[in-house]
Specification:
alpha/beta, 2-enoyl-CoA Hydratase, Chain A, domain 1, 6-stranded mixed sheet, 15 strands, about 15% strand, globular
Length: about 450
C-alpha cells in the first residue's frame, strides 16, 4: 500500500514529537534516573593492617594534592605566621611515628590544624555515613556526586563501616524521629515584649522539607515572625554557628524577613589542575588573566594574593521575599563572633555587604564565600580528606578568609550569656544584647 506525501509528513511529525517528548521527559527526570540506589554496598572486608610506610604514603599523597590546590597558604602565613609547606619534613617524620590507624588519623588532623581552617581535616569514622548520604543523590554532572563515589570504594567503605543496614538505620532515623522529642535548633522569644524580637540560630541545619528537624525550625520561625512583624527591631543571633547548609538562610530564613529583593556580588578563584576540571565546568569558571584581574578594581593586596590562581567565577546572590514574608520594616541586628564560619559566615558577609542589618559582636571566622569543600580518599588507609577548593572574595575585593567579616559595632566580650525565660529573655549581662538595648534606647 502506498502512503501519500501528506500522510508521510503527518507520520514523520508524530514520530518527531514522540522522540521530543521522550527526550524532554528524560531531561526533566534525569536527576531521578541518575540517583544512586539506596542499598548498593557489598559486605565489608576485613581491614588490612597498615604500617609506617603506608601512613607516610597516604600523607605524601594528600600533601601533593594540598600543595597543588589548597587556596589559603598565603593567608595562613599572614594571619598566623605559619609557612606550612616549609614544614613538610617535620610533618612527615611525625606521621612516620604512627603506630595504628587511629594514631595516624589523630596525627594527620593535628598537622592539618596548622592550616587554621575548619574546612580541612580527615573525616571522622562516624561521620562518613552522613557525608555519603549528603551527596549520594547529587546529579551526575555535579562534582559533589563524586564525593559519594568515594565512599562506595571498598577501602573507604571499610574504613567508615558503611553497610546497607547502616544506610537503612540512618535514613529511618532521619525521616522517622518523633517530632516532639527532637532537640531544638532555633529558638524565638521577645527581648522586650512587643518591641524587640530575637531569633537564635545555633546551626544552619539542612534545608530539606522532608527533614523533621527542619520542619520544626520552619514551623517555629514562621509562626514567631507572624507575631512580631510590626516590632521595631529584630535580633538574629548566630554567635557560635559554625555553618551547615547555606540554603537555610538563603532559601528559608531571609525570604521570610526581607521586604524587597536583595542582591550581592561575590567572586571565587580556583587553581588549575585535572582534579578540579569537573568543578570548573559545573560552576562555570572562566580563565583568569592579568587583564581580567585588573578589571575587577580589587585592592592591590587582593590582586597579589590571586597571582597563583588560574580560573574565576562571579555570582550574584539574590534573596527575594517569599509569599510568607512578613516584610519586616524595623531595624535588624545580626549578632556574630569568631566562631561564625562557613555558611553562617556567608550570611554575615551577605548582610554586611548589603547593609540589611547592623552587625554586633566580634570579627567572624571567615571562609564563607564558595561552595562545598572538596574531598579525596587516601589510597592506603581509606580515610577521606576534605579541604576548601576556592578563594572567596567579596564584590568590593575583600578576601573573606583573610579579612573575614568585621562587625559594624565591636563588642569586646561577645560571649553568649542570656537564657530564654518563661515570658522574656534573661539578659544576664550579655554585652551584645545590652548594646542592642542601648541602640534601641530601651535600657
Amino acid at each position: 500500500m502506498k502512503i501519500n506525501k501528506k500522510r508521510k509528513i503527518i507520520i514523520f511529525t508524530i514520530v518527531i514529537l514522540l522522540i521530543s517528548s521522550v527526550v524532554t521527559f528524560c531531561l526533566i527526570n534525569s536527576y531521578k534516573f541518575s540517583s544512586k540506589p539506596i542499598f548498593d554496598f557489598p559486605p565489608l572486608k576485613e581491614n588490612e593492617k597498615l604500617d609506617s610506610d603506608d601512613y607516610v604514603y597516604d600523607f605524601n599523597y594528600a600533601w601533593d594534592v594540598l600543595e597543588d590546590y589548597y587556596p589559603y597558604f598565603d593567608v595562613n602565613r599572614e594571619l598566623f605566621g605559619v609557612d606550612f609547606l616549609a614544614n613538610k619534613n617535620d610533618y612527615q617524620d611525625y606521621i612516620a611515628q604512627a603506630k595504628t590507624d587511629e594514631d595516624f588519623y589523630k596525627r594527620f588532623n593535628q598537622i592539618l590544624k596548622d592550616l587554621h581552617n575548619y574546612h580541612v581535616n580527615l573525616i571522622g569514622v562516624n561521620e562518613g555515613i552522613y557525608q555519603y548520604l549528603t551527596y549520594r543523590d547529587a546529579h551526575r554532572v555535579d562534582f559533589r556526586s563524586d564525593f559519594a563515589d568515594l565512599y562506595e570504594n571498598n577501602i573507604v567503605q571499610n574504613r567508615y563501616g558503611i553497610t546497607n543496614e547502616l544506610i537503612r538505620d540512618k535514613l529511618s532515623e532521619y525521616h522517622g524521629q518523633d517530632f516532639e522529642i527532637l532537640s531544638t535548633n532555633a529558638n524565638c522569644q521577645d527581648l522586650i515584649p512587643g518591641k524587640i524580637a530575637l531569633i537564635s540560630i545555633p546551626n544552619m541545619i539542612g534545608y530539606d522539607l522532608q527533614s523533621i528537624e527542619f520542619k520544626k525550625d520552619k514551623e517555629k520561625i514562621e509562626s514567631y515572625l507572624q507575631l512580631v512583624e510590626n516590632y521595631g527591631a529584630l535580633v538574629i543571633d548566630i554567635r557560635g554557628n559554625g555553618g551547615g547548609d547555606s540554603q537555610y538562610w538563603e532559601e528559608f530564613l531571609l525570604p521570610l524577613i526581607v521586604n524587597e529583593e536583595v542582591r550581592n556580588l561575590e567572586y571565587t578563584f580556583i587553581k588549575d589542575g585535572p582534579l578540579f576540571k569537573k568543578v570548573r565546568r559545573y560552576e562555570g569558571y572562566k580563565r583568569l588573566n592579568a587583564n581580567t584581574l585588573g578589571g575587577f578594581n580589587f585592592p592591590e593586596k587582593t590582586i597579589n594574593y590571586l597571582k597563583d590562581f588560574s580560573f574565576y567565577t562571579n555570582h550574584e546572590r539574590v534573596v527575594n521575599p517569599n509569599n510568607e514574608s512578613v516584610k519586616f520594616g524595623g531595624k535588624i541586628y545580626l549578632l556574630v563572633d569568631e566562631k561564625v564560619f562557613s555558611s553562617a559566615e556567608m550570611l554575615a558577609s551577605f548582610m554586611k555587604e548589603t547593609n540589611i542589618a547592623t552587625l554586633i559582636g566580634t570579627t567572624t571566622g571567615g571562609d564563607g564565600i564558595g561552595t562545598d569543600p572538596f574531598q579525596i580518599s587516601l589510597p592506603k588507609s581509606g580515610f577521606v580528606m576534605r579541604f576548601p577548593k576556592q578563594m572567596g572574595v567579596t564584590g568590593k575585593g575583600s578576601i573573606n578568609d583573610l579579612e573575614k567579616t568585621k562587625p559594624d559595632i565591636t563588642v569586646i566580650d561577645s560571649s553568649v550569656k542570656y537564657s530564654f525565660g518563661e515570658n522574656q529573655i534573661n539578659i544576664n549581662a550579655d554585652k551584645c544584647l545590652e548594646k542592642v538595648l542601648e541602640l534601641e534606647k530601651t535600657k
